[in-house]
Fold each of these.
Amino acid sequence: MKPDLDIPTVVRSPTQQRGKSFTRRELSDYYRKQYNASYTERTLAKKASTGEDGPPFYYLGRYPRYPKDLADAWIRKKISRLVRSAAEGKAQIAAQHPIAA
């Protein structure tokens, strides 16, 4: 099941792109520096190849490009609200991602 994200399902064509886009290496560095999040190039590639929940991208030739606005929207959905204990954090995660029975 795909998560409910405010990300368009139809990605704009490269000619419609406005603003910055990243290569996988650039996006990995950006996430580390901007959000202190560890998503390696390899992780991003795996998410793209398996269809796992990953940031949306388009191809420029044979190279994937990640639009900055959509990459930011995706990572922000991964960040939880502030919690005061690990138990509260686990409960929050469990409520957001219930296990299918």
Amino acid sequence: MVRLTPVPQARPDRRGRRRRLGRSVRRGVRSGEFQLPIADVFTIAGRGVVVVGQVAAGASVVGETTIVGIEAFRKRVDVARQGDMVGLMLRGVSREQVHAGDIVVVRQ
């Protein structure tokens, strides 16, 4: 199951500094849970939606749930692991459903 978690946008605090609201990505990670904070979202005509970001936790493979493709630095790879900067092509997800700042979570 892939779950998209919206993360609140940065808001100014009392001193006017911008701060990020919401829980840390790493807090509450279950064993083997894949998490990818989305940095950017693209639409490829005829293919689908691609989300880009750095894997914060876990690992995921192609064909798992709605992930139909993984690319790292313009090369197709079979698995995305913690620390990898990747693009995930998602099946059955529209562009309006995902935004920069959301987190892709795949439960194992």
Amino acid sequence: MGDTVTWTPLHDKIIVLRDKPKETYDGDAKLAVAEQHQHAQNKGVVLVIGTGRVVGGYEVPLKVAVGMEVLFGQHSGTDLEEDPKLLILREDELLGWRWPAVAKAEEPAA
């Protein structure tokens, strides 16, 4: 799959790109873990958001925005078949979110 997401989430749904699984280290040696035994990460970045939650006939905008880092439960959401790194879930399934840390510019040496 390329950089574009072909799905548009409805209402309070969002599409998240999961972070890559962490590699396991044992001292200086890297352990090879079979892909089916690696746990899917429970954090990622929001790629697309829906129009908002419907409350009393009105749409309330979502609190998350595209580009935010989010945390979600291990069994939350639904994997998209086209790309298992993509997950669609409801905003209320999120455990937390934050804006990605902005890299600080290095100060010049004195």
